[in-house]
Queue: 3 jobs
Job 1
Amino acid sequence: MAEPPAEDSTDPKLTLNRRAFIKGVIAAGAVATSASYLFRGSGALLGQPSLPGSVERLITLNVNGQVRRVDVLKQETLATTLRYKLGLTGTKLGCDRAECGACTVLIDDVPHYSCSVLTHTVRARRVVTIEGLASATGTLHPVQQAVVDEQGFQCAFCMPGFVMATVGFLKTHPNPTRAELAHGISGNLCRCQDYNKILTAMMRGAEYMRRA
């Protein structure tokens, strides 16, 4: 008995049907994923709380005075969220293990290494990054202006962390001595080793803040 002829994979109709089938599978998967994502984090919309032990991924953050909704993994750090989810790349990732201070941000006015803070823990708290220091009209913060005036950095990779640490320190120590300020921001490291110029710029920033 003769066997039926094999399908010709080069047949345009067959190729078109396969393409349509693949597109349909992808579209169906996208719809299913979107639906599961929507209802996974929308307990409030359905009037039901999240299951015990579950972690809501779509959360609300207060960053630089703005309310932002963002999809966050339960193990995701604040530095990752700020840089790669919210586009706030002024927060630098240096060591990524709480040693260099390049990722320093203010959380409720207190400096923190954002690479070692889980994003889920800062809900209902105020986060400020280097982008949030300038005024709405574009006027630089006094510490930022001091950096410009004193040209206090070389490569400036560490600059955002130093500025944020200084701003946080000056909120509770507005009139520090040079030694006090050096101790207050000693958790930040400079790969260019230009600490003398950095400290001079930060002291000028303290002076500008007292004038403001």
Note: Confidence is low (pLDDT under 50) at residues 30-48.
Job 2
Amino acid sequence: MSRFVFFLLLLAVIGMAAHIWLASATEKTDFSPRERNRDEVRIVAVTPPAVAERNSEETRRAVQALAGAACVEFSGITAADAPRARTAFAALQLGERLSERRVEEISRYWVFVPATPAIDRRAAEQRIAQLRKQGVTDVSLRPDNAISLGVFSSEDAATRFLSSMQAKGIRDAESGPFVRDLREIAMIVREPDTETVARLTLLQRDYAGSVLRAIPCPAPPA
């Protein structure tokens, strides 16, 4: 009787172990319950072999052409792309070997009486009073004590207004750029190694119209 009970218990243990093993095996191999949005998965793009081969050849030629350059300039990065480009170049961890060159365009010009070391705030206010007596009403004092007589959208307009001021006897007025807007930036890498040049070549594909070329290294800032 005791042997019969023992065999019953043994069969129960074996059955439970088999059940646990089967459940565990099913859980490991059946991933369907874990899938999310299976029908929405799409292949975005596949690079054709011919295009991939051409890209690889262009990269090889660019690296070969720039090998040994003292400095390499990555230019043509638009103002809109500048923040993204700065982040990408920061990831290269180039340290002091990386510098930036700004390309600006003038969007406003002005006519003004320049500030000089001899003109303090009080002297500038006295000069404004003299200008008003000469018929100039639209004047404003800048923080550096320069006196603005007008801001214009073109250099020609500023030049014509300057002539009218000179006709009134205002001989100390000048015209010049007032607002400079960022048009694009160029990133300059000093003494790039082959790996860095290769990474720059690949990065160039993300910025339409950008140019990668060897240049003489700019003088360090004073």
Note: The CA atoms of residues 12 and 18 lie 10 Å apart.
Job 3
Amino acid sequence: MAHEHPDAAADPALRVKALETLLIEKGLVDPAALDALVDTFEHRIGPRNGARVVARAWVDRAYKERLLTGATAAIAEFGYTGMQGEHMVAVENTPTGHNLVVCTLCSCYPWPILGLPPVWYKSAPYRSRAVIDPRGVLREFGLEIGDDVEIRVWDSTAEIRYLVLPERPTGSKQLSEAQLAELVTRDAMIGTAKISVPRSGASR
């Protein structure tokens, strides 16, 4: 099946960027304030949706099964639906398999689940090298994956977007679902990071 992507003129990200540039040029928007707003949605509000999904899958086996077999419907149980999130697939990291998400031809990304895509996700080097040398790319993110662990690279399209279900970190047995959600990062749900429990939060 062909790897189909939306026409550039119809890409919401491109339209937003054009509008942003126009508003800044006319002096109607403060670039610093805009950067702060983008940071909020990229790092705090947006990924929190996906984090709740991941935490629920960690504590609820039935939900995890629904997520892995029908991610779109399972995610919709939280009310997270809409454009860029209509056709979701969840892939699970395990001790023997690690998943990495990329979009080789543009930057298809599950906005309702992860918020705004990071700049590096849209960059040409990441989009090409993630497929050619995923282990090397992950190493540059500070993530060493052993040679005995299979790395699977998933190419998002306009029709299918992926969510990585990270491994639940050791030392998190006593944490509540809400506390677990606080540990989950955007990068872990793309596959460029793992999750660990801060020393002060580890169970004894």
Note: The longest strand covers residues 97-102.
